[in-house]
Amino acid sequence: MLAQSTIDTSLHPVAAVAAVRRLFQTGDTKEVFAVFRALRGKSGIRAFRRFAASPLGVQVLAERRCLLDRLNDHAALRALPPASVGRAYLAFMEDEQLSAQGLVQASNWEQDPVPADLALFRERMRDAHDLTHVLTGYGRDPLGELCLLAFMYAHSRNLGMALIAIMSMPRLPRRARRAVIQAWRDGRKARWLQDQDFEAQLTMPLAQVRGDLGITDPGLYRALMP
């Protein structure tokens, strides 16, 4: 049983707004996590309980499964079929010169102690971030990151995601704002992503996984990309 009393679920809107402003000024990824922490409320606990009650969640928690290990095994990913999720993920990471470890470092600057099962779930969602870029089709450019936040808000219900998107909207041209709104709508239509068997999906065709998850083409975003 998750001891909710040990976790800070209060909202800190002033701190969240300040972190968003710092994010706009510096682009530092750790400010994103600061916003998420300030406005997470009970969203993470609700998501964890839903995950832990799912068949996949029961299996992941029992096995102490670590998604990061699979994502860091580039040799195994390179051996997958060319059209697979895993190969698309590897290409994405190499094109962007990223490592899965980068998000670990950005998120660990201010960790609060939580039960082991909740910590595993949080780490799994963190490690899946770049994978969701691949699944949704949004890049790592500023608009792509913003669209992904709007898409994923329906899945995490973390108000920090909504705050970053809302505070960013006045800074965007009209067509970019429309792309963010489309991402939010598409996220609401897609299957819940936080109880997915990402390890199994790495071996599957990307087009098939997108279809299974109800992820539609981000046309407005792609039209704005070079």
Number of helices: 16
Q: What profile does the largest beta sheet have?
A: none
One letter per element, helices H and strands E, the order comes to HHHHHHHHHHHHHHHH
Mean of residue pLDDT values: 92
Q: How far is it from the N-terminal to the C-terminal residue, by CA?
A: 49 Å
Number of β-strand runs:
0
What number of structural domains do the residues give?
A: 1
- Decide which structural class fits the backbone: mainly alpha
What percent of residues adopt helix (DSSP H or I)? Answer: 55-70%
Shape: globular
Task: Name the beta content range.
Answer: under 5%
Low-confidence stretches: none
Description:
This protein has 16 helices and no strands. With 226 residues, the chain is mostly helical. 37% of the residues are buried.
In short:
This protein is mainly alpha-helical and 226 residues long. It is built from 16 helices and no strands.
Features:
0% strand; 226 residues; globular; mainly alpha; single chain; 16 helices
Architecture blueprint of SSEs:
Elements: H1 13-26, H2 29-39, H3 43-53, H4 55-63, H5 67-72, H6 74-78, H7 85-95, H8 100-107, H9 116-127, H10 129-136, H11 142-156, H12 159-168, H13 174-189, H14 198-201, H15 206-213, H16 219-224
